[in-house]
Amino acid sequence: MDILDEFTKAQRELADGERKTVTLRRLYDADVEDVWQACTDAERLSRWFMPVTGDLRLGGTYQLQGNAGGEILRCEPPSLLRVSWLMGENPGFSEVEVRLSAKDGGTLFELRHVAEVPPEFWDRFGPGSVGVGWDLSLLGLGLHLSGGEKVDESTFHLTDEGRRYITASSEAWGQAHLAAGAPREQVAAATAATTAFYAPE
């Protein structure tokens, strides 16, 4: 599998308002039910994303190991999942929604993450702060659905293809930031900071 080819299969958008919204869309060569199960079954999630615990039903709560947790706000199998996405002691508003629909013999996967982001954090990293992480997740899902091995996130950034993927993702989110009206100098600095965070030397 060509990692950069996987990267180009996704579309990225940013809505830069009081709440920031990053959106990713990608077509997977798998049926909707399979993608839905991969995104909602705890055992399968641990194989491509990260281990999850909790009461995994509408109104229940979940916790991703070493990452976000929250409440399951909407669950309409096999097409719509929305959860609160909370990290830290005093998290602001943050929700993630996944929509699945049949398209061209496969599944159109759309992920939308809406959050209130502290201005100083946004100024430093921009949309790549979460966008690169979601790009890596979509890569993991693609590998899983095609029967590939899970990316080792502890070493992926040390490989040539990992650094190329992360750099391409960071630059793509910089372009989305520009398209949303951010000043070019701010975008360049945020893109550099995001790349350095995800792929340190």
UniProtKB/TrEMBL annotation:
One Pfam family cited in the UniProt record for this chain: AHSA1
Domain Activator of Hsp90 ATPase homologue 1/2-like C-terminal, residue spans: 29-138
InterPro entries: ASHA1/2-like_C, START-like_dom_sf
Highest taxon listed in the record's lineage: Bacteria
Family under the similarity heading: Belongs to the AHA1 family.
The name this protein goes by in its record: SRPBCC family protein
Organism name: Nonomuraea cypriaca
Lineage: Bacteria, Bacillati, Actinomycetota, Actinomycetes, Streptosporangiales
